[in-house]
Specification:
Number of strands: 0
Shape: globular
Radius of gyration: 22 Å
Helix content: over 70%
Order of helices and strands: HHHHHHHHHHHHHHHHHHHHHH
Distance between the termini: 58 Å
Protein backbone atom coordinates (compact mmCIF):
# COMPACT_ATOMS: atom_id res chain seq x y z
CA UNK A 1 0.00 0.00 0.00
CA UNK A 2 2.89 2.34 0.78
CA UNK A 3 4.43 1.62 -2.63
CA UNK A 4 1.12 2.41 -4.33
CA UNK A 5 0.90 5.70 -2.44
CA UNK A 6 4.40 6.61 -3.61
CA UNK A 7 3.34 5.81 -7.17
CA UNK A 8 0.27 8.02 -6.95
CA UNK A 9 2.33 10.86 -5.47
CA UNK A 10 4.81 10.48 -8.34
CA UNK A 11 2.02 10.75 -10.93
CA UNK A 12 0.67 13.84 -9.14
CA UNK A 13 4.18 15.35 -9.00
CA UNK A 14 4.42 15.21 -12.79
CA UNK A 15 1.14 17.12 -13.12
CA UNK A 16 2.38 19.68 -10.61
CA UNK A 17 5.65 20.09 -12.50
CA UNK A 18 3.77 20.64 -15.77
CA UNK A 19 1.68 23.42 -14.24
CA UNK A 20 4.63 25.03 -12.43
CA UNK A 21 6.78 25.10 -15.56
CA UNK A 22 3.94 26.49 -17.67
CA UNK A 23 3.18 29.26 -15.18
CA UNK A 24 6.86 30.19 -14.85
CA UNK A 25 7.33 30.35 -18.62
CA UNK A 26 4.13 32.34 -19.16
CA UNK A 27 5.23 34.88 -16.55
CA UNK A 28 8.63 35.16 -18.22
CA UNK A 29 7.06 35.78 -21.63
CA UNK A 30 4.93 38.58 -20.18
CA UNK A 31 7.88 40.18 -18.39
CA UNK A 32 10.42 39.76 -21.18
CA UNK A 33 9.47 42.87 -23.13
CA UNK A 34 8.76 40.76 -26.19
CA UNK A 35 6.10 42.41 -28.34
CA UNK A 36 4.00 40.31 -30.63
CA UNK A 37 2.96 41.92 -33.91
CA UNK A 38 0.04 39.58 -34.48
CA UNK A 39 -2.45 42.17 -33.16
CA UNK A 40 -1.40 44.45 -36.04
CA UNK A 41 -2.25 41.80 -38.60
CA UNK A 42 -0.72 38.61 -39.94
CA UNK A 43 1.35 40.44 -42.57
CA UNK A 44 3.03 42.57 -39.90
CA UNK A 45 3.89 39.49 -37.84
CA UNK A 46 5.28 37.77 -40.93
CA UNK A 47 7.58 40.71 -41.58
CA UNK A 48 8.82 40.59 -38.00
CA UNK A 49 9.46 36.85 -38.27
CA UNK A 50 11.36 37.34 -41.51
CA UNK A 51 13.46 40.07 -39.92
CA UNK A 52 14.32 37.71 -37.03
CA UNK A 53 15.42 35.08 -39.53
CA UNK A 54 17.58 37.60 -41.39
CA UNK A 55 19.57 38.17 -38.19
CA UNK A 56 20.93 34.66 -38.63
CA UNK A 57 21.78 35.25 -42.30
CA UNK A 58 18.99 32.95 -43.55
CA UNK A 59 16.55 33.84 -46.33
CA UNK A 60 12.83 33.14 -45.94
CA UNK A 61 12.36 30.42 -48.57
CA UNK A 62 10.01 28.02 -46.80
CA UNK A 63 6.31 28.86 -46.57
CA UNK A 64 5.57 30.52 -43.20
CA UNK A 65 1.98 29.45 -42.48
CA UNK A 66 1.92 27.25 -39.37
CA UNK A 67 0.00 28.37 -36.28
CA UNK A 68 0.15 27.20 -32.69
CA UNK A 69 -1.91 24.02 -33.13
CA UNK A 70 -0.03 22.98 -36.27
CA UNK A 71 3.46 23.42 -34.82
CA UNK A 72 2.35 21.65 -31.63
CA UNK A 73 1.22 18.81 -33.88
CA UNK A 74 4.69 18.50 -35.39
CA UNK A 75 6.25 17.59 -32.04
CA UNK A 76 3.24 15.62 -30.76
CA UNK A 77 2.98 13.53 -33.95
CA UNK A 78 6.71 12.80 -34.13
CA UNK A 79 6.64 11.61 -30.51
CA UNK A 80 3.96 9.19 -31.79
CA UNK A 81 2.12 8.28 -28.60
CA UNK A 82 -0.43 5.94 -30.19
CA UNK A 83 1.82 4.70 -32.99
CA UNK A 84 4.83 4.16 -30.74
CA UNK A 85 2.77 2.35 -28.11
CA UNK A 86 1.35 0.10 -30.83
CA UNK A 87 4.66 -1.77 -31.15
CA UNK A 88 6.47 -1.02 -27.87
CA UNK A 89 3.79 -1.32 -25.18
CA UNK A 90 3.65 -5.13 -25.34
CA UNK A 91 7.42 -5.74 -25.22
CA UNK A 92 7.80 -3.14 -22.42
CA UNK A 93 5.08 -4.82 -20.36
CA UNK A 94 6.52 -8.25 -21.00
CA UNK A 95 9.95 -7.09 -19.86
CA UNK A 96 9.08 -5.02 -16.79
CA UNK A 97 5.45 -5.76 -15.95
CA UNK A 98 2.75 -3.21 -15.02
CA UNK A 99 5.24 -1.24 -12.92
CA UNK A 100 6.70 0.25 -16.13
CA UNK A 101 3.39 2.09 -16.47
CA UNK A 102 2.83 2.93 -12.81
CA UNK A 103 6.38 4.03 -12.03
CA UNK A 104 8.46 3.98 -15.22
CA UNK A 105 6.22 6.12 -17.42
CA UNK A 106 5.82 9.00 -14.89
CA UNK A 107 9.57 8.99 -14.20
CA UNK A 108 10.28 9.21 -17.92
CA UNK A 109 7.70 11.98 -18.28
CA UNK A 110 9.13 14.06 -15.44
CA UNK A 111 12.67 13.88 -16.82
CA UNK A 112 11.47 14.46 -20.40
CA UNK A 113 9.57 17.53 -19.19
CA UNK A 114 12.81 19.02 -17.82
CA UNK A 115 14.59 18.29 -21.10
CA UNK A 116 11.76 19.85 -23.11
CA UNK A 117 11.79 22.99 -20.95
CA UNK A 118 15.53 23.44 -21.48
CA UNK A 119 15.21 22.86 -25.24
CA UNK A 120 12.27 25.28 -25.36
CA UNK A 121 14.49 28.05 -23.97
CA UNK A 122 16.99 27.48 -26.78
CA UNK A 123 14.23 27.35 -29.41
CA UNK A 124 12.99 30.73 -28.21
CA UNK A 125 16.49 32.17 -28.54
CA UNK A 126 17.36 30.78 -31.99
CA UNK A 127 14.12 30.32 -34.03
CA UNK A 128 15.61 28.57 -37.08
CA UNK A 129 14.96 25.22 -38.75
CA UNK A 130 18.44 24.04 -37.75
CA UNK A 131 17.19 23.35 -34.23
CA UNK A 132 19.81 21.69 -32.03
CA UNK A 133 22.41 22.07 -34.80
CA UNK A 134 22.15 25.86 -34.82
CA UNK A 135 21.85 26.06 -31.03
CA UNK A 136 25.06 24.09 -30.53
CA UNK A 137 26.84 26.10 -33.25
CA UNK A 138 25.82 29.40 -31.66
CA UNK A 139 27.20 28.41 -28.27
CA UNK A 140 29.93 25.84 -28.92
CA UNK A 141 31.26 26.70 -32.35
CA UNK A 142 31.37 24.98 -35.72
CA UNK A 143 32.72 21.57 -34.63
CA UNK A 144 30.26 21.04 -31.78
CA UNK A 145 27.44 22.23 -34.02
CA UNK A 146 28.32 19.80 -36.80
CA UNK A 147 28.54 16.80 -34.47
CA UNK A 148 25.24 17.76 -32.87
CA UNK A 149 23.60 18.07 -36.29
CA UNK A 150 24.97 14.70 -37.39
CA UNK A 151 23.70 12.91 -34.28
CA UNK A 152 20.31 14.59 -34.55
CA UNK A 153 19.81 13.81 -38.24
CA UNK A 154 20.89 10.18 -37.74
CA UNK A 155 18.57 9.76 -34.75
CA UNK A 156 15.58 11.24 -36.55
CA UNK A 157 16.20 9.08 -39.61
CA UNK A 158 16.31 6.02 -37.34
CA UNK A 159 13.01 7.13 -35.79
CA UNK A 160 11.48 7.46 -39.26
CA UNK A 161 12.75 3.98 -40.12
CA UNK A 162 11.35 2.54 -36.90
CA UNK A 163 7.89 4.07 -37.39
CA UNK A 164 7.63 2.95 -41.00
CA UNK A 165 8.86 -0.56 -40.24
CA UNK A 166 6.31 -0.87 -37.44
CA UNK A 167 3.54 0.51 -39.64
CA UNK A 168 4.44 -1.86 -42.48
CA UNK A 169 4.56 -4.88 -40.16
CA UNK A 170 1.21 -4.11 -38.54
CA UNK A 171 -0.40 -3.28 -41.90
CA UNK A 172 0.90 -6.52 -43.41
CA UNK A 173 -0.58 -8.52 -40.53
CA UNK A 174 -3.82 -6.51 -40.67
CA UNK A 175 -4.31 -7.08 -44.41
CA UNK A 176 -3.21 -10.71 -44.41
CA UNK A 177 -5.91 -11.56 -41.85
CA UNK A 178 -8.56 -10.02 -44.08
CA UNK A 179 -7.25 -10.86 -47.56
CA UNK A 180 -6.09 -14.35 -46.56
CA UNK A 181 -2.49 -14.32 -47.74
CA UNK A 182 0.68 -15.35 -45.92
CA UNK A 183 2.88 -12.42 -44.78
CA UNK A 184 6.44 -12.64 -46.08
CA UNK A 185 9.57 -10.58 -46.44
CA UNK A 186 8.37 -9.54 -49.91
CA UNK A 187 4.99 -8.27 -48.68
CA UNK A 188 6.67 -6.49 -45.75
CA UNK A 189 9.12 -4.65 -47.98
CA UNK A 190 6.37 -3.82 -50.47
CA UNK A 191 4.52 -2.14 -47.60
CA UNK A 192 7.65 -0.30 -46.41
CA UNK A 193 8.49 1.13 -49.82
CA UNK A 194 4.88 2.05 -50.63
CA UNK A 195 4.32 3.81 -47.29
CA UNK A 196 7.62 5.70 -47.53
CA UNK A 197 6.99 6.87 -51.11
CA UNK A 198 3.51 8.07 -50.11
CA UNK A 199 5.02 10.07 -47.21
CA UNK A 200 7.65 11.64 -49.45
CA UNK A 201 5.06 12.56 -52.08
CA UNK A 202 2.84 14.16 -49.41
CA UNK A 203 5.79 16.18 -48.10
CA UNK A 204 6.84 17.25 -51.60
CA UNK A 205 3.50 18.27 -53.06
CA UNK A 206 1.29 18.72 -50.00
CA UNK A 207 2.86 21.76 -48.35
CA UNK A 208 -0.32 23.85 -48.57
CA UNK A 209 -2.17 21.20 -46.61
CA UNK A 210 0.66 20.65 -44.13
CA UNK A 211 -0.93 22.68 -41.34
CA UNK A 212 -4.15 20.69 -41.65
CA UNK A 213 -2.28 17.38 -41.63
CA UNK A 214 -0.36 18.44 -38.52
CA UNK A 215 -3.48 19.50 -36.63
CA UNK A 216 -5.40 16.49 -37.95
CA UNK A 217 -2.68 14.17 -36.66
CA UNK A 218 -3.18 15.51 -33.15
CA UNK A 219 -6.93 14.92 -33.28
CA UNK A 220 -6.38 11.49 -34.81
CA UNK A 221 -4.21 10.42 -31.87
CA UNK A 222 -6.66 11.90 -29.36
CA UNK A 223 -9.59 10.12 -31.02
CA UNK A 224 -7.66 6.83 -31.12
CA UNK A 225 -6.84 7.09 -27.41
CA UNK A 226 -10.43 8.02 -26.54
CA UNK A 227 -11.85 5.14 -28.58
CA UNK A 228 -9.48 2.64 -27.01
CA UNK A 229 -10.27 3.72 -23.45
CA UNK A 230 -13.97 4.14 -24.20
CA UNK A 231 -14.29 0.69 -25.71
CA UNK A 232 -12.50 -0.98 -22.82
CA UNK A 233 -14.61 0.93 -20.27
CA UNK A 234 -17.80 -0.10 -22.04
CA UNK A 235 -16.80 -3.77 -22.26
CA UNK A 236 -14.73 -4.52 -19.17
CA UNK A 237 -15.19 -1.87 -16.47
CA UNK A 238 -15.19 -2.35 -13.57
CA UNK A 239 -12.44 -4.95 -13.87
CA UNK A 240 -11.28 -7.33 -11.19
CA UNK A 241 -7.96 -5.57 -10.71
CA UNK A 242 -7.33 -2.59 -8.48
CA UNK A 243 -5.16 0.29 -9.73
CA UNK A 244 -2.67 -0.86 -7.10
CA UNK A 245 -1.57 -3.48 -9.64
CA UNK A 246 0.21 -0.71 -11.58
CA UNK A 247 2.54 -0.11 -8.65
CA UNK A 248 3.52 -3.72 -7.96
CA UNK A 249 6.65 -5.20 -9.49
CA UNK A 250 5.06 -8.24 -11.10
CA UNK A 251 5.72 -9.65 -14.55
CA UNK A 252 3.21 -9.30 -17.37
CA UNK A 253 1.24 -12.37 -16.29
CA UNK A 254 1.04 -11.08 -12.67
CA UNK A 255 2.46 -14.40 -11.46
CA UNK A 256 5.97 -13.44 -10.43
CA UNK A 257 8.28 -10.53 -9.73
CA UNK A 258 10.68 -8.56 -11.90
CA UNK A 259 14.18 -7.44 -10.99
CA UNK A 260 15.70 -3.99 -11.40
CA UNK A 261 17.27 -4.88 -14.74
CA UNK A 262 13.94 -5.98 -16.23
CA UNK A 263 12.21 -2.85 -14.94
CA UNK A 264 14.87 -0.57 -16.45
CA UNK A 265 14.78 -2.42 -19.77
CA UNK A 266 10.98 -2.25 -19.99
CA UNK A 267 10.93 1.42 -19.03
CA UNK A 268 13.58 2.30 -21.61
CA UNK A 269 11.42 0.85 -24.36
CA UNK A 270 8.77 3.45 -23.51
CA UNK A 271 11.44 6.15 -23.86
CA UNK A 272 10.57 6.25 -27.56
CA UNK A 273 7.27 7.92 -26.64
CA UNK A 274 9.24 10.98 -25.50
CA UNK A 275 11.67 11.09 -28.44
CA UNK A 276 11.15 13.94 -30.91
CA UNK A 277 9.88 16.68 -28.60
CA UNK A 278 12.17 19.16 -30.38
CA UNK A 279 10.54 18.48 -33.76
CA UNK A 280 8.68 21.80 -33.61
CA UNK A 281 12.01 23.63 -33.80
CA UNK A 282 12.58 22.15 -37.27
CA UNK A 283 9.43 23.94 -38.39
CA UNK A 284 10.47 27.30 -36.92
CA UNK A 285 11.00 28.89 -40.34
CA UNK A 286 7.46 27.88 -41.32
CA UNK A 287 5.79 29.08 -38.11
CA UNK A 288 4.13 32.42 -37.45
CA UNK A 289 5.64 33.94 -34.28
CA UNK A 290 8.14 31.10 -33.67
CA UNK A 291 9.89 32.70 -30.67
CA UNK A 292 6.84 31.92 -28.54
CA UNK A 293 4.85 29.23 -30.36
CA UNK A 294 7.73 26.83 -31.01
CA UNK A 295 8.90 26.62 -27.36
CA UNK A 296 5.32 26.16 -26.19
CA UNK A 297 4.91 23.35 -28.74
CA UNK A 298 8.05 21.60 -27.44
CA UNK A 299 6.96 21.87 -23.82
CA UNK A 300 3.27 21.09 -24.21
CA UNK A 301 3.79 18.13 -26.54
CA UNK A 302 5.69 16.41 -23.73
CA UNK A 303 3.00 17.34 -21.20
CA UNK A 304 0.12 16.05 -23.32
CA UNK A 305 1.97 12.86 -24.23
CA UNK A 306 2.17 12.11 -20.51
CA UNK A 307 -1.42 13.09 -19.69
CA UNK A 308 -3.05 11.18 -22.55
CA UNK A 309 -0.53 8.35 -22.51
CA UNK A 310 -0.74 7.62 -18.81
CA UNK A 311 -4.54 7.45 -18.90
CA UNK A 312 -4.58 5.19 -21.97
CA UNK A 313 -1.76 2.82 -21.01
CA UNK A 314 -2.82 2.54 -17.38
CA UNK A 315 -6.36 1.53 -18.28
CA UNK A 316 -5.17 -0.92 -20.94
CA UNK A 317 -2.92 -2.52 -18.36
CA UNK A 318 -5.74 -2.88 -15.83
CA UNK A 319 -7.86 -4.77 -18.40
CA UNK A 320 -4.90 -6.81 -19.62
CA UNK A 321 -6.10 -10.25 -18.56
CA UNK A 322 -9.35 -9.82 -20.48
CA UNK A 323 -7.82 -8.52 -23.69
CA UNK A 324 -4.43 -10.20 -24.00
CA UNK A 325 -5.09 -13.72 -22.70
CA UNK A 326 -1.54 -13.90 -21.39
CA UNK A 327 0.02 -12.63 -24.62
CA UNK A 328 2.45 -9.79 -23.92
CA UNK A 329 4.07 -9.62 -27.32
CA UNK A 330 4.23 -6.89 -29.92
CA UNK A 331 0.53 -7.31 -30.82
CA UNK A 332 -0.72 -6.64 -27.30
CA UNK A 333 -1.65 -3.01 -27.94
CA UNK A 334 -3.60 -3.78 -31.12
CA UNK A 335 -5.34 -6.74 -29.48
CA UNK A 336 -6.38 -4.58 -26.53
CA UNK A 337 -7.54 -1.74 -28.80
CA UNK A 338 -9.66 -4.10 -30.90
CA UNK A 339 -11.08 -5.99 -27.92
CA UNK A 340 -13.11 -3.06 -26.63
CA UNK A 341 -15.06 -2.81 -29.88
CA UNK A 342 -15.41 -6.48 -30.70
CA UNK A 343 -12.55 -6.50 -33.18
CA UNK A 344 -13.95 -3.63 -35.28
CA UNK A 345 -11.56 -2.99 -38.15
CA UNK A 346 -12.00 0.79 -37.93
CA UNK A 347 -10.08 0.88 -34.61
CA UNK A 348 -7.09 -0.90 -36.14
CA UNK A 349 -7.28 1.36 -39.19
CA UNK A 350 -7.18 4.50 -37.01
CA UNK A 351 -4.13 3.21 -35.11
CA UNK A 352 -2.36 2.38 -38.38
CA UNK A 353 -3.23 5.77 -39.90
CA UNK A 354 -1.92 7.49 -36.78
CA UNK A 355 1.34 5.57 -37.08
CA UNK A 356 1.70 6.51 -40.76
CA UNK A 357 1.02 10.20 -40.02
CA UNK A 358 3.70 10.11 -37.32
CA UNK A 359 6.13 8.77 -39.90
CA UNK A 360 5.00 11.46 -42.34
CA UNK A 361 5.82 14.24 -39.87
CA UNK A 362 9.11 12.61 -38.89
CA UNK A 363 10.06 12.73 -42.57
CA UNK A 364 9.22 16.46 -42.50
CA UNK A 365 11.63 16.91 -39.59
CA UNK A 366 14.38 14.85 -41.24
CA UNK A 367 14.18 16.88 -44.44
CA UNK A 368 14.51 20.20 -42.57
CA UNK A 369 17.41 18.87 -40.49
CA UNK A 370 19.32 17.80 -43.61
CA UNK A 371 18.47 21.10 -45.34
CA UNK A 372 20.05 23.02 -42.47
CA UNK A 373 23.26 21.01 -42.75
CA UNK A 374 23.33 21.36 -46.53
CA UNK A 375 22.91 25.15 -46.33
CA UNK A 376 26.27 25.28 -44.55
CA UNK A 377 27.78 22.92 -47.19
CA UNK A 378 28.38 20.28 -44.54
CA UNK A 379 27.09 17.44 -46.74
CA UNK A 380 28.34 15.95 -50.02
CA UNK A 381 26.54 17.48 -53.02
CA UNK A 382 25.26 20.27 -50.76
CA UNK A 383 24.19 22.48 -53.68
CA UNK A 384 21.76 19.78 -54.78
CA UNK A 385 20.29 19.25 -51.30
CA UNK A 386 19.71 22.98 -50.69
CA UNK A 387 17.24 23.23 -53.56
CA UNK A 388 13.82 24.46 -52.43
CA UNK A 389 10.85 23.98 -54.75
CA UNK A 390 9.72 27.41 -55.94
CA UNK A 391 6.20 26.18 -56.56
CA UNK A 392 5.64 24.25 -53.33
CA UNK A 393 8.25 25.95 -51.12
CA UNK A 394 9.45 22.64 -49.73
CA UNK A 395 13.00 21.21 -49.57
CA UNK A 396 12.07 18.59 -52.15
CA UNK A 397 15.59 17.20 -52.55
CA UNK A 398 16.09 16.47 -48.85
CA UNK A 399 12.56 15.05 -48.61
CA UNK A 400 13.43 12.30 -51.07
CA UNK A 401 16.92 11.92 -49.61
CA UNK A 402 15.41 11.31 -46.16
CA UNK A 403 12.95 8.75 -47.54
CA UNK A 404 15.74 6.90 -49.36
CA UNK A 405 18.02 6.89 -46.33
CA UNK A 406 15.24 5.49 -44.12
CA UNK A 407 14.85 2.51 -46.44
CA UNK A 408 18.63 1.95 -46.51
CA UNK A 409 18.84 2.13 -42.69
CA UNK A 410 16.09 -0.48 -42.36
CA UNK A 411 17.88 -2.79 -44.78
CA UNK A 412 21.13 -2.39 -42.83
CA UNK A 413 19.38 -3.04 -39.51
CA UNK A 414 17.77 -6.22 -40.83
CA UNK A 415 21.12 -7.44 -42.17
CA UNK A 416 22.65 -6.97 -38.71
CA UNK A 417 19.78 -8.74 -36.93
CA UNK A 418 16.72 -10.07 -38.70
CA UNK A 419 14.66 -10.44 -35.52
CA UNK A 420 15.94 -7.73 -33.16
CA UNK A 421 16.11 -4.78 -35.53
CA UNK A 422 13.32 -2.92 -33.69
CA UNK A 423 15.34 -2.89 -30.46
CA UNK A 424 18.43 -1.88 -32.45
CA UNK A 425 16.62 1.10 -33.98
CA UNK A 426 15.13 2.17 -30.63
CA UNK A 427 18.57 2.01 -29.01
CA UNK A 428 20.26 3.89 -31.85
CA UNK A 429 17.55 6.54 -31.94
CA UNK A 430 17.64 7.19 -28.18
CA UNK A 431 21.45 7.38 -28.06
CA UNK A 432 21.80 9.71 -31.04
CA UNK A 433 18.92 12.06 -30.26
CA UNK A 434 19.67 12.31 -26.55
CA UNK A 435 23.30 13.06 -27.37
CA UNK A 436 22.18 15.81 -29.75
CA UNK A 437 19.99 17.27 -26.97
CA UNK A 438 22.71 17.07 -24.32
CA UNK A 439 25.35 19.01 -26.28
CA UNK A 440 23.56 22.39 -26.68
CA UNK A 441 22.11 22.22 -23.15
CA UNK A 442 25.60 21.54 -21.77
CA UNK A 443 26.97 24.44 -23.82
CA UNK A 444 24.28 26.69 -22.37
CA UNK A 445 25.34 25.68 -18.87
CA UNK A 446 29.01 26.23 -19.72
CA UNK A 447 28.26 29.78 -20.84
CA UNK A 448 26.14 30.34 -17.71
CA UNK A 449 23.23 31.55 -19.86
CA UNK A 450 25.23 34.59 -20.96
CA UNK A 451 24.63 34.09 -24.67
CA UNK A 452 23.26 37.32 -26.08
CA UNK A 453 20.49 35.58 -28.00
CA UNK A 454 19.57 33.60 -24.91
CA UNK A 455 19.06 36.80 -22.94
CA UNK A 456 16.53 37.97 -25.53
CA UNK A 457 14.56 34.72 -25.48
CA UNK A 458 11.03 35.52 -24.25
CA UNK A 459 10.30 31.89 -23.25
CA UNK A 460 12.57 30.96 -20.34
CA UNK A 461 12.50 29.63 -16.79
CA UNK A 462 14.50 32.39 -15.12
CA UNK A 463 16.28 31.23 -11.97
CA UNK A 464 14.98 27.69 -12.45
CA UNK A 465 16.80 27.35 -15.74
CA UNK A 466 20.20 26.27 -14.45
CA UNK A 467 18.89 23.53 -12.14
CA UNK A 468 16.52 22.23 -14.81
CA UNK A 469 19.32 22.15 -17.40
CA UNK A 470 21.71 20.30 -15.10
CA UNK A 471 19.17 17.58 -14.35
CA UNK A 472 18.32 17.38 -18.07
CA UNK A 473 21.95 16.89 -19.13
CA UNK A 474 22.59 14.24 -16.49
CA UNK A 475 19.47 12.33 -17.52
CA UNK A 476 20.29 12.55 -21.23
CA UNK A 477 23.77 11.10 -20.66
CA UNK A 478 22.50 8.37 -18.32
CA UNK A 479 19.62 7.39 -20.62
CA UNK A 480 21.94 7.12 -23.63
CA UNK A 481 24.25 4.86 -21.62
CA UNK A 482 21.33 2.73 -20.41
CA UNK A 483 19.97 2.39 -23.94
CA UNK A 484 23.37 1.08 -25.08
CA UNK A 485 23.54 -1.39 -22.21
CA UNK A 486 19.94 -2.60 -21.93
CA UNK A 487 18.38 -2.33 -25.39
CA UNK A 488 20.91 -3.25 -28.08
CA UNK A 489 24.69 -2.97 -28.25
CA UNK A 490 24.55 -2.19 -31.97
CA UNK A 491 22.81 1.06 -31.06
CA UNK A 492 26.02 2.21 -29.39
CA UNK A 493 28.14 0.87 -32.26
CA UNK A 494 25.97 2.76 -34.75
CA UNK A 495 26.28 5.98 -32.73
CA UNK A 496 30.07 5.55 -32.67
CA UNK A 497 30.04 5.14 -36.46
CA UNK A 498 28.02 8.37 -36.76
CA UNK A 499 30.64 10.19 -34.67
CA UNK A 500 33.43 8.75 -36.82
CA UNK A 501 31.66 9.73 -40.05
CA UNK A 502 30.96 13.22 -38.66
CA UNK A 503 34.63 13.68 -37.76
CA UNK A 504 35.79 12.55 -41.20
CA UNK A 505 33.26 14.74 -43.01
CA UNK A 506 34.11 17.71 -40.81
CA UNK A 507 37.76 17.31 -41.78
CA UNK A 508 36.80 16.85 -45.44
CA UNK A 509 34.47 19.86 -45.67
CA UNK A 510 35.91 22.06 -42.92
CA UNK A 511 37.17 24.93 -45.06
CA UNK A 512 34.17 24.96 -47.37
CA UNK A 513 31.73 24.86 -44.47
CA UNK A 514 33.56 27.58 -42.56
CA UNK A 515 33.50 29.87 -45.60
CA UNK A 516 29.79 29.15 -46.09
CA UNK A 517 28.94 29.98 -42.46
CA UNK A 518 31.00 33.18 -42.54
CA UNK A 519 29.37 34.17 -45.82
CA UNK A 520 25.91 33.53 -44.41
CA UNK A 521 26.67 35.65 -41.34
CA UNK A 522 27.75 38.57 -43.53
CA UNK A 523 24.84 38.48 -45.98
CA UNK A 524 23.36 41.89 -46.59
CA UNK A 525 19.64 42.54 -46.47
CA UNK A 526 19.72 43.21 -50.20
CA UNK A 527 21.21 39.77 -50.88
CA UNK A 528 18.65 38.05 -48.66
CA UNK A 529 15.80 39.85 -50.42
CA UNK A 530 17.21 38.75 -53.76
CA UNK A 531 17.23 35.11 -52.57
CA UNK A 532 13.62 35.45 -51.41
CA UNK A 533 12.34 37.01 -54.59
CA UNK A 534 10.98 33.75 -56.00
CA UNK A 535 9.31 32.69 -52.77
CA UNK A 536 6.07 34.35 -51.60
CA UNK A 537 5.97 35.21 -47.91
CA UNK A 538 2.82 33.21 -47.21
Amino acid sequence: MVVALIGLLLAAAVFAAILAGALKAQTSVKNSGYQSMISYGASTQLLQDKHELHRFGIAQQLRRHLGGMSIFGLSFNVMALVGGAAFLYGPALKEGGPSVIGFGFPILALLALLVSASLAELASAVPTAGGVYHWATAMGGRKWGWRTGAFHAAGQLATLTLLNAACAGLLDAFLSARLHYDPSLLTFWTMVVTLTIAQAAANHWGTRGLKYILAGGVWLQMIAAALIVGGLVWLFWPGSYSPIVLFQFHNAQLSGTVNASAFIGGTLLLQKLFIGMDAASQGAEETIEPRVKVPWAIYLSTAYTYIVGFAMLAFMTLTLTYTAEGNAGAGLFINSALAGWGGAWIIGAIVLLSLWVSGLQTLTVCSRALLSLARDEALPLSKWWTKVSERHQTPASTVWLSASMAVVILAAAQLITSTGYVMLLVSFSVICIHTSYAIPIAMKLQQNNQLQAEQRAPWHLGRWSRVVSWIAVIWLVVSAALAAGYLHRWGAIGAALVLLAATIMDFRYEKRRLVSMQSRAKRSRKELLRMEKKFPLQ
